[in-house]
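Example S7 (structure tokens).
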């Protein structure tokens, strides 16, 4: 088994408040380069680490991390609304493994993704359901925050 990492951010302003032409050109070149890399690698499974901007997770339930067993994009900021192709059995195995590695993680059978998770998937693969995707929410907006060492430990468990 091989693993490829593509790290990219997201922006709610893509296609809404375009940057200067020279910046937009460089941005589009970077996206095309990453898209080509993803196509050449042709993953069997994509894991997307995603924030949430109080669209799917709220103060009444705000885990440090959550692995989606099923997920749907809400379609905000010019992303597509609709379901992702989430392999629930693999998600369940992943959650159990992460827990066995000493990282407490929540699960969701109805995860809602906003542009933070949907946009990178769409940019890389053109469609939300082009590849099996396991979304992993990482709380980065609401206290209490976990220490970076614990975030690293969670990422390491997922990577294993």
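Recovered sequence:
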């Amino acid at each position: 088994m091989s693993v490829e990492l593509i790290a990219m951010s997201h922006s709610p302003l893509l296609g809404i408040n375009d940057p200067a032409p020279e910046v937009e050109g460089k941005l589009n070149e970077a996206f095309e380069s990453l898209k080509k890399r993803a196509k050449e690698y042709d993953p069997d499974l994509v894991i997307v680490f995603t924030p949430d901007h109080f669209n799917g997770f709220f103060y009444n339930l705000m885990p440090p991390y959550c692995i989606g067993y099923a997920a749907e994009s809400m379609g905000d900021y010019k992303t597509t609304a609709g379901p992702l192709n989430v392999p629930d059995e693999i998600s369940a195995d992943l959650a159990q493994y992460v827990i066995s590695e000493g990282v407490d993680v929540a699960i969701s059978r109805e995860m809602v993704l906003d542009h933070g998770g949907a946009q990178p998937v769409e940019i890389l693969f053109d469609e939300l359901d082009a590849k099996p995707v396991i979304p992993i929410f990482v709380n980065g907006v609401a206290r209490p925050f976990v220490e970076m060492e614990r975030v690293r430990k969670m990422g390491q468990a997922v990577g294993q």
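Notes on this example. The chain has a mean pLDDT of 92.
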